[in-house]
Structures are given as C-alpha cells and as structure tokens.
Design a protein that fits this description.
This protein is α+β, with helices and mostly antiparallel strands and 425 residues long. It contains 3 helices and 24 strands. The N and C termini lie far apart (90 Å). Bound molecules: copper (II) ion. Copper (II) ion binds next to loops.
C-alpha cells in the first residue's frame, strides 16, 4: 500500500512537471501596458516622444525624446502628473538633434499626463500606468496548481507513513489538477471583456489662428468637440504614431505635416510658419476610442508677401499610367544609401490631395516596416531602403498633388509632385 501510494505520488509529481513545463509563461511574465510613441510638434520642434512602459507602481518612468533636424537645440522640462493631482517628478532634458532620455517616477496606478514644456508651449500627453488584472480562468489555473502542490506534499508525507489516509490528498491532487488543466484549456475560449465603448459620434473641428502672416510662426488652435454633446473630445487614440496628423497645404502646393500637441482636453495647438499668402486647406486625421479614423477639414487665410519656401529633398518618383479606380504603384527613391529611419513607425509616408480644385480626396498612405504588430520600430535604426513603393487607388480622375516623406539623419525629407489621373475609357 505504502509503496503503491508513493509510486502514485511520484507519478503525480511528473504530471505536474509536464503540465507546468509544457505551457508557456503561466506566471508573471506577461507584459503590462506598452510603450507609447507619439509625434508632437512643439513650437518649432518636431518631436517623437516615447513613454516607456512601466512595470507596476511606484516605478521609474523612462521617456525618450527624438528631436528632428530643423528644431533648435535647448532644454525641455518634463513632468509626470497623475490625473487631478500635482506633478510627482520633474526632469530637465537637454536636446540636440536625435535622441535624448529623461528619467521620471510614477507612484500610483491609473491615468497620467506627461507634460513637456519648452518655456512657451506645453504638451500634455496622456498615458496610463496599468495594474495587472488577473482573469478568473487564470486564478483557477494558479489556484488549481497551488492546491495540487499542497495535496501532493500532504500525499508524500502520508505515503511515507502508510495507511489509507493518503487517499484523501491523492483524490484532492487529482481534482485540483483537473480544475487547473480544464481552466487552462478553456482559457482560449473564455472571451476577454473589452474595455472599449461602442461607437462614438463624429468630432467637430474648429481651427482658429491669430492673424497668420507669412514669415511669422502662426499659432493654430484646434478645438475638438463631440458632435452630439458639444463637450470637449478627450478620447483620442494614438494612431500611426500621433494623436492628430495635420496636413496643411498652401495655395501652390507646399505641405506642412505637423502633429498638434494636446494642451487640454479637446484643445490642441500647433505652430507652423507660412511662406505663402492665401487660402491654406488642411485635413486633420484622428482616431477616437471606438470611433474609427476620422478626417476633419478646415482652412485658414494667410496674409503677407510670398517668401522663399524650403527646397524639396533630392530623389526621383516613378509612376506608371494612372487611371481612376485601378490600383497604382508609386515608387520613390530618396537618392542615397539605404539608411532611412522609420518616422511615425513607418518607412515612408505618402500624402495625396486632389483632384484640384475641389480637393475631395485627402489620403495618407504608408509603407509599413516589418515590425511586430503593436510595436513601433525604433526610429534610431537607420537601415531602411532608400526606395519605397506605395499602392494607392485614385478614386476619380483629375490632377492631384502628392508628397512623399521619409526620414534620414533625423531630418524629415519631403518630395512633392503633381500627378494626372485619367478617367476609365
Ligand atoms: Cu502625421
């Protein structure tokens, strides 16, 4: 009897070991949250701000900031601010062109804002310090294994003494193992409760500018309100590496591709320096929680005299015959070595606006990297091919403006072109 039970107990240990080792990462290895990488046009600087994920709280908080060429060197003041409270830590980081790192501290779970101040403008980037919530099935798995372990120990102790009492822990071991194995097997079929709300109404955008004039930095204020309630919209998601992508097009086809900073809920600010007078059209692309991607149009009028604008980047564009309704391949070669960097997580960007003069179509096309889903490739890696292809279907014939963008040496390169799209025969 004693020997048989001992054998049973040893066999139980083996099963426990097999089940335990054959299943990947039961315990605390699961990542909580993720890095948040967000483009912010703060004053004259085009920044990529990456808030690294924290593991619990209190914990150190690392923030990486990349400043792009053209943005001045200087100091930025960073603060970690818990929702509705005073900042818990601040740091000053000196930036040149390229990456810089700041170290802050978070002391609690929940919603936070990262404040970045250049002395004149302030960006408030929302992020969260999530607490790991253990799903019910996981508790059953762990609980089952813990119970099985305890019964196993009890069984081993009783088995060495002999007697029928050993049957009680042996039965307990089997039951506990069944619970945990069943829960583990069922776990893939147990739905994860979504924290996303249902679809939200569209956003209204109002753009105000204080007498924009050529050669002077113009401060744009973007007010985002819920079209149903009129309240400020504060559930904007980071998509394609920014809260808002704003494309501003000048009368002769100059492009400013900027990323307004969040000053307060529903209140976004951005600066750009026009070089042409006249009507500037713009489209803001954003994504709301449960609301999908939305594109909002606006325009402003610029006063003043024309000034020389920035030179296009060197390179060549190759397109075949373009016909409305047919997918077209557009290839750009940013002349030079294969050392492009991923800007906003993408190897290349193509912005298309047209047909003139109505500009019904605004499109932002991307050339993806091969990064794993959910992660943004490291912008400091300068190893992407200089030639980039995009696929786009022009929905209607006419003359379009297009801008190809990529990054090299922390400079945003832009090659503008004009494309004529034929009608279907
Ligand atoms: Cu953008």
């Amino acid at each position: 009897m004693g020997t048989g039970m001992r054998r049973f107990a040893v066999w139980g240990l083996v099963v426990l070991g097999l089940v335990g080792s054959g299943t990947p990462a039961w315990a605390d290895g699961a990542p909580v949250g993720s890095d948040v990488a967000v483009a912010q046009t703060l004053g004259e600087r085009e920044l990529t701000v990456t808030v690294r994920r924290t593991d619990g709280a209190p914990a150190p908080l690392q923030v990486d900031i990349i400043n792009h060429a053209g943005g001045p060197a200087g100091a930025l003041r960073l603060s970690a601010v818990p929702a509705g409270a005073r900042p818990t830590s601040t740091a000053t980081v000196d930036i040149g062109v390229g990456p810089a790192t700041a170290h802050l501290h978070v002391d609690r779970f929940g919603y936070w804002e990262l404040e970045i101040d250049d002395g004149r403008h302030t960006a408030r980037i929302p992020f969260s310090v999530p607490q790991r919530v253990t799903p019910a099935w996981e508790r059953a798995v762990y609980g089952g294994f813990v119970a099985a372990g305890l019964f196993l120990v009890a069984g081993l102790v009783l088995a060495t003494r002999g007697g029928k009492l050993v049957l009680i822990p042996a039965t307990g071991l089997v039951v506990a193992l069944s619970v945990s194995v069943t829960a583990a097997l069922l776990s893939s079929t147990i739905p994860v409760v979504s924290t996303q709300d249902n679809a939200r109404p569209p956003v209204n955008l109002a753009v105000a500018a204080d007498n924009p004039t050529t050669g002077r930095p113009a401060e744009l204020t973007l007010s985002l309100t819920d079209s149903a309630t009129g309240r400020p919209v504060d559930d904007i998601l980071v998509h394609h590496g920014a809260l808002i992508h704003l494309a501003i097009v000048s009368p002769t086809g100059g492009l400013a591709h900027v990323h307004p900073v969040r000053a307060a809920p529903g209140d976004y600010r951005v600066q750009f320096t026009p070089t042409e007078p006249g009507r500037h059209t713009m489209a803001a692309e954003l994504a709301r929680v449960g609301g999908g991607t939305q594109q909002l149009r606006a325009e402003i009028n610029v006063a003043g005299n024309p000034l020389p604008s920035s030179e296009p980047a060197p390179g060549t564009i190759t397109v075949g015959p373009l016909r409305a309704g047919d997918p077209a391949t557009l290839t750009v070669d940013f002349a030079g070595p294969d050392d492009l960097q991923p800007w906003l997580g993408m190897r290349g960007h193509l912005i298309v606006v047209g047909p003139s003069p109505t500009q019904d179509v605004w499109a932002h096309v991307h050339a993806m990297t091969t990064a794993t889903a959910g992660t943004q490739p490291d912008e400091t890696v300068a190893a992407y091919p200089a030639e980039i292809s995009f696929t786009f279907t022009f929905p209607r014939p006419g003359r379009y403006r297009a801008w190809f963008q990529a990054e090299r040496d922390y400079a945003i390169l832009t090659i503008p072109t004009t494309l004529d799209v034929e009608a279907q025969p």
